[in-house]
Specification:
With about 290 residues, the protein is of the alpha+beta class. Helices cover about 20% and strands about 40% of the residues.
Length: about 290
């Protein structure tokens, strides 16, 4: 039997192992999420094969990055060979996982595939959004900071100013920017916790830190500052804009709905119409203090 290599990771409160038929180089930021723990809630098992089986089952989704099929309760995701609806080259991986839950996830790679043997490639095959959703947490498109009173997440459509507000808090209040693009939120022990994640978009800011979630702030640009606390279905709708989930996976979509409802009930949400200067920090800070958050 050929040698196998196993590494362990922890992301967003969920642990998993990666077993491969070859060793691979650990690269930051992925190396920040390795762990000495040997208990794994999910196993990723990589294998090499002469070729990948032909797509089979019900087509669930396709875009320029992958196609997903459903067969016998498992998702079969063919990764990395489509662009503008045209097949460019053979897929570099077939990822098979249960449509509900995680457990064991199998990743098959063609033997002749020209792939880098490093953690960046491995993570491309993990379908992290499914793992996190199935575990009862959610990935959000946010800028994530930690203050002396806990975590604040800034969410909004791209280009609205999430990174700008995070930087203002760093500059004027000594906050630490943990991730410039993403975060994970999990409700546990009656409260919400924010976690780092090894994906940071173009920001390049990525640390593996967690903290009690003080507030989520939905941003809009405006000529003057205005803030309000919101909840219920309005909060649900605004937060839904920033969730990263496979809506084509029925089980993930249902789990996401329940998890997001728990987050809305647990984590304070504010809508901040703001200008890009310290006055936006001041009005948010005052509002959080008013609610003793």
């Amino acid at each position: 039997m050929s040698e196998r290599y196993v590494k362990y990771y922890g992301i967003g409160g969920v642990s998993f192992s990666v077993e491969t038929p070859y060793d691979y180089e650990e690269k930051p930021p992925y190396s920040l999420f390795t762990t000495g723990e040997r208990d794994a809630e999910c196993r990723y098992v990589f294998s090499l094969a002469p070729s990948l089986p032909e797509p089979d089952g019900k087509l669930l989704y396709e875009d320029q990055n992958y196609r997903a099929y459903l067969k016998d309760g498992r998702v079969m995701r063919y990764a990395g060979f489509y662009a503008d609806g045209k097949e460019l080259s053979p897929p570099y991986a077939l990822i098979r996982y249960p449509s509900a839950g995680a457990g064991r996830i199998d990743v098959t790679i063609p033997e002749d595939a020209d792939i880098p043997r490093n953690s960046a490639f491995v993570y491309k095959c993990l379908c992290i959004e499914h793992l996190i959703t199935a575990s009862g947490a959610l990935i959000f498109h946010t800028s994530y900071i930690i203050t002396d009173k806990g975590a604040i997440l800034f969410t909004a459509p791209s280009g609205t100013g999430k990174s700008t507000q995070a930087e203002l808090w760093r500059r004027h209040r000594g906050a630490r920017v943990i991730n410039g693009d993403c975060s994970i939120v999990r409700v546990e022990d009656g409260g919400a916790t924010a976690y780092g994640i090894p994906f940071s978009g173009t920001s390049g800011i990525c640390f593996n830190e967690s903290a009690p979630l003080r507030a989520i702030v939905y941003l809009t640009q405006a000529p003057e500052n205005r803030i309000e606390r919101i909840g219920g279905m309005r909060a649900f709708g605004l937060l839904m804009e920033g969730v990263k989930v496979n809506t084509w996976n029925r089980s993930d979509a249902e789990t996401m709905t329940n998890t997001l409802a728990d987050i809305v009930k647990t984590a304070p949400l504010f809508k901040l119409d703001c200008v890009p200067d310290e006055s936006a920090v001041e009005i948010l800070e005052a509002e959080l203090d008013k609610y003793q958050i």
